[in-house]
Amino acid sequence: MPAVRTRLPIAERVAPSFGEKLAGHGLELLRRGATTTLQVNVGKLCNQACHHCHVEAGPKRTEVMTRAVAERVIALLAASPDVTTVDITGGAPELNPSFRWLVDEARRLGRHVIDRCNLTVLFEAGMDDLAEFLAERDVEIVASLPCYSASNVDEQRGHGVFAKSISGLQRLNALGYGRSHGERTLNLVYNPNGAFLPPAQAGLEATYKAELARDFGIAFDHLFTITNVPIARYADYLDERGQYDAYMSLLVAHLNPATVSGLMCRSLISVGWDGAVYDCDFNQMLELPLGAARTIFELDSLALEGQSIATGSHCFACTAGSGSSCGGSLV
Question: Residue 264, Cβ neighbours under 10 Å: how many?
Answer without folding.
Answer: 21
